[in-house]
Specification:
Largest sheet: 5 strands, parallel
Shape: globular
CATH architecture: 3-Layer(aba) Sandwich
CATH topology: Rossmann fold
Number of domains: 1
Radius of gyration: 17 Å
Helix content: 40-55%
Number of helices: 6
Distance between the termini: 28 Å
Protein name: Restriction endonuclease
Length: about 210
């Protein structure tokens, strides 16, 4: 990672599970970030066959001032093994913040789990870092995201109540929006979902 890499002050890296069970929360994070006037970034946006996945992640993390990391997926998969992608990407982000250049050291991050102190049972090295619990509820994840962005950016943002209400209104419109574009609302590809969100009248404030 280049020492002189300058992270964008509006880009928010999302490190989270990509399975169908987590999809409502993933989409809620995307919406909340846009509703607050920032831009979500995710490994899902990367589709360059000429670059390894880890290099894509290095570049993506280098470009983002902010990062949201959900470490809640601790269940075993069909092979009886846990998923380590989220802790790995969190470690890369923390490494960039600790060992990167001056601009990289300005990184800020939000760590989410289902419960605030559950991490002590499986990733105790995070002791001393505030973990925020979302209880598996997308609306709580929206509130945590909005309040954290307001805190770390010091920008004037819509209230958490307003962002949650706006997200509810968007979810009510999503089936019709999906049908008009001939998408299954449960399986809209990432880039297309982003386009739907940005074309919907969120009325987000411009970052200041």
């Amino acid at each position: 990672m280049a020492d002189d890499a300058r992270p964008s002050t509006v880009d928010v890296f999302i490190n989270c599970p990509f399975d169908q069970d987590y999809a409502p929360t993933f989409r809620a994070l995307i919406f909340a970030i846009y509703a607050c006037g920032f831009r979500p970034r995710s490994a899902r946006e990367l589709d360059d066959g000429g670059q390894t996945r880890i290099d894509k992640l290095f570049n993506l993390i280098a470009e983002c001032r902010y990062g949201i990391h959900d470490v809640s997926r601790t269940e075993l998969d069909g092979n009886g093994l846990p998923r380590f992608n989220m802790p790995l990407e969190l470690g890369i982000f923390l490494g960039a913040k600790r060992f990167g250049g001056k601009a990289q050291r300005l990184k800020r991050l939000l760590i989410l789990d289902t419960e605030q102190y559950r991490y002590q049972m499986f990733i105790s090295d995070l002791a001393g870092i505030d973990i925020h619990g979302h209880r598996g509820d997308p609306a709580v994840a929206v509130r945590e995201t909005r309040d954290w962005l307001a805190n770390v950016s010091r920008r004037h943002l819509p209230s958490a109540d307003r962002v949650v209400r706006t997200h509810d209104a968007f979810l009510a419109d999503l089936p019709a929006l999906s049908e008009a574009l001939e998408f299954d609302p449960e399986t809209i590809p990432y880039v297309d979902f982003e386009r739907i969100v940005t074309n919907w009248p969120i009325a987000a404030p411009a970052p200041r």
